[in-house]
Amino acid sequence: MLRLYSKDNIADLVLSMRSRDRLCHSFLLVGDKGVGKKTAAKYMALEILCRGTDKIPCGVCKDCRMISNDAHPDVITVSASGKSGNYRADDLRPLISDAYIASNEGGYKIYILPDIDKALPAAQNTLLKIFEEPPDHVIIIMTAEKQENVLPTVRSRAIVINVPEATHEDTIAALKERRIGESDAERAYQHFGGNIGACIEYLGGGSDEMYLRVKSASEALAKSDEYVLLKTLNETDRAMAVELTGELSKVISEALKRKQGYEDKSFYSTEAQKLSETTGQKALITMYDRIIEASQKLKGNASVSLTMADLCGKLIGRL
After folding, report:
1. Which of 151, 184, 214, 315 counts the highest number of beta carbons within 10 A?
2. 211-262, pLDDT tens digit by residue?
3. What is the dihedral of CA 130, 132, 136, 139, to 10 degrees?
4. Which residues pair with 143 in a beta bridge?
5. Which of 44, 33, 126 has the alpha carbon at shortest distance from 87?
6. Per-residue b/e over 172-198, b at no fewer than 16 CB within 10 Å?
7. Which contacts qualify for 53-62: CB closer than 8 Å, 24 or more apart?
8. Which residues lie closer than 8 Å to 134 by C-beta, 6 or more apart?
């Protein structure tokens, strides 16, 4: 049975809405990559469609079993076809026509749209008709790392839910359930806090390369080492470059928070601390702006090598 860790606020909200027969037609789950947004969306689908009586979700009814096996005909996860994982308008248009078709099992029809913040405005605009006049049987659950990248016209029509990290206890328990030893689980938690997805990827080697790249780039920024920074930024393909700039913006953002006295635990606490100690607030703000500009260019058709080389020059030049 699918489990949520330290996210009772989400489970309780959906159950409360369901008990009063007042389910919202659209939700926006916001949080860092790996924090559990997609898991939360799937769990919400379980709560909404479960036919159990004693416990919801029961985990044994037909709907729960189909959702758990990703086989429910009324739970549709929409995929993005863009090179950088962004939605195109053509990815979302089929949802509009399909939404007006009755559900297969006679209940709600749930559409899950992961990473809607990666959709360009034109693609997001295709959804407005559904948000403005949703069919009674349709529920849309979106996820986003940055809610500011979701159009206000879309965001204002959804219940926005911040997806929290798991507690230390829940993080270790979740990792142990995946047969990860306690010492490795503790090591991952020291790096990534209660972001269970990031911990799992790190221990499996999936995100280790990205972590090392971000660490290298952050240290190069702190030392004004242009050679190491250029080497780290430039040896990437487009998808990795987009992810790398996104992760670097998080380091800069946390360094700025530390300048103001906030020290929340995150992926890159050590790197952010070093940057905050070696770089002024004005320079950090400029860095952040330059990284965001480069990220937007990379999501278009800009040359990866030229964009990253230009970014390196601007970052070092501002220190």
Report:
1. 315
2. 788 889 999 999 888 889 998 898 888 888 988 998 899 899 989 988 888 7
3. 60
4. 29
5. 126
6. bebbeeeebeeeebeebbebbbbbbbb
7. 56/15, 56/18, 57/1, 57/2, 59/1, 62/105
8. 25, 26, 99, 140
